[in-house]
C-alpha cells in the first residue's frame, strides 16, 4: 500500500479546514487561567479539553513536548493519549520537540516520533539542523518511509537566534539560507507540496531569504507574540500560500470554554485565509 506523503495530506487539510496550526502549550500560567492546578490532573484536563474542542476542525495541532515532559512519565502518558485522539479526530499532529543530534541518537528521536510503532507517532516533528543539515538524515528518511513531515528550524522569532541563523556560511550565504536551500533540494519534484518544512517566525518582518522551498512554512508568532495574519504576505512573499501560521495563547486563552476555543480558532483561520488569498 502506498503511503500518502505528509505534504499532500497537509495541503488538503489546509484547503478544507483552513490554514492554521494551534499549539497545545500547557504553561503553568495557562493552567491557572483555566482554574486548574499545575499538576498532572490539570495537565490532563487542559489537554483533553483542547483536543476535544479543536481536533475535529483545525488542520494541525502542535503539542509542545516540553510542557508534558516536565511531569515525567505521567505527563508523557497524557501526551500519548492526546496524539492518538487528535489524529483519530482528523487533525494532523505536529510534535514540537525541536530535536537535534547525530547518528544513532537522531535515529532514536526519529523512531520516537516518526515510527508508527511508537506511542508518540505523529504526523510531523520539529527538528534543529544546527549540528549540520546532514545530521537530520535519519529523521528525513523515516519521514519518507512513513508518510510524515519534518519541520526544520530556519529563522526563529527569538532575538538570540540571529547570531547563529543570520551568520555567514562558507559559501557566503546566511546559515538560514543554506538550510532553506537544503530543504528545497529535499522537496524537489514533490506535488502538491513537499514534506520538509521550515520554521520561520511571523514576527520577523521581511525575512530577507528565499522561502520558496516547495514545502510548508510553519510560522509561529501569531497572536500573543505580536504578529497578525495581515503581516504574513510581507514576511513570506510569494510563498505565503504555503504558510501554516501557528497560534497558541491567542486561542488557548479562551478556554476552558469549548465554544470560545472553537470560535477563536475559526476566527484566526478565516483571517489567515483572507490574508494569504487576498
Provide the descriptors you would attach to this structure in a database record.
TIM Barrel, alpha/beta
Describe the protein in words.
It comes from Streptomyces sannanensis. Belongs to the OMP decarboxylase family. Type 2 subfamily. Its EC number is 4.1.1.23. It contains twelve helices and eight strands. With 278 residues, the chain is α/β, with parallel strands linked by helices. It has an eight-stranded parallel β-barrel, surrounded by seven helices. Helix 10 links the parallel strand 7 and strand 8. Helix 3 packs across helix 12. The protein is globular. The relative contact order is 0.15.
What portion of residues is helical? Answer: 40-55%
Shape: globular
Q: What is the CATH topology descriptor?
A: TIM Barrel
Instruction: Tally the structural domains.
Output: 1
Integer average pLDDT:
95
The CATH class turns out to be Alpha Beta
How far the N terminus sits from the C terminus, by CA atoms, comes to 39 Å
Spatial strand arrangement across the major sheet: 1-2-3-4-5-6-7-8
Q: Got a strand count?
A: 8
Task: State the gist of this model.
With 278 residues, this protein is α/β, with parallel strands linked by helices. It has one domain: Alpha-Beta Barrel (TIM Barrel). Helix content is 44%, strand content 15%.
Amino acid at each position: 500500500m502506498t503511503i500518502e506523503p505528509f505534504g499532500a495530506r497537509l495541503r488538503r487539510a489546509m484547503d478544507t479546514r483552513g490554514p492554521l496550526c494551534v499549539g497545545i502549550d500547557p504553561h503553568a500560567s495557562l493552567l491557572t487561567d483555566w482554574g486548574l492546578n499545575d499538576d498532572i490532573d490539570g495537565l490532563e484536563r487542559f489537554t483533553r479539553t483542547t483536543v476535544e474542542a479543536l481536533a475535529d476542525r483545525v488542520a494541525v495541532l502542535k503539542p509542545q513536548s516540553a510542557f508534558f515532559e516536565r511531569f515525567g512519565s505521567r505527563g508523557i502518558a497524557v501526551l500519548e493519549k492526546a496524539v492518538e485522539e487528535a489524529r483519530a479526530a482528523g487533525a494532523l499532529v505536529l510534535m514540537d520537540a525541536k530535536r537535534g543530534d547525530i547518528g544513532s541518537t537522531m535515529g532514536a528521536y526519529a523512531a520516537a516520533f516518526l515510527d508508527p510503532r511508537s506511542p508518540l507517532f505523529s504526523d510531523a516533528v520539529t527538528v534543529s539542523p544546527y549540528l549540520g543539515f546532514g545530521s537530520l538524515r535519519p529523521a528525513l528518511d523515516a519521514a519518507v518511509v512513513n508518510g510524515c513531515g519534518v519541520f526544520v528550524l530556519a529563522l526563529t522569532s527569538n532575538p538570540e537566534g540571529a547570531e547563529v541563523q543570520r551568520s555567514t556560511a562558507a559559501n557566503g550565504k546566511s546559515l538560514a539560507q543554506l538550510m532553506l536551500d537544503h530543504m528545497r533540494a529535499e522537496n524537489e519534484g514533490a506535488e502538491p507540496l513537499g514534506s520538509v518544512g521550515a520554521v520561520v517566525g511571523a514576527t520577523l518582518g521581511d525575512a530577507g531569504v528565499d522561502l520558496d522551498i516547495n514545502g510548508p512554512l510553519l510560522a509561529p508568532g501569531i497572536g500573543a507574540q505580536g504578529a497578525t495574519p495581515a503581516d504574513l504576505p510581507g514576511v513570506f512573499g510569494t510563498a505565503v500560500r504555503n504558510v501554516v501560521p501557528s497560534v497558541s495563547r491567542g486561542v488557548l486563552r479562551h478556554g476552558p470554554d469549548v465554544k470560545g476555543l472553537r470560535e477563536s480558532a475559526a476566527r484566526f483561520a478565516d483571517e489567515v485565509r483572507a490574508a494569504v488569498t487576498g
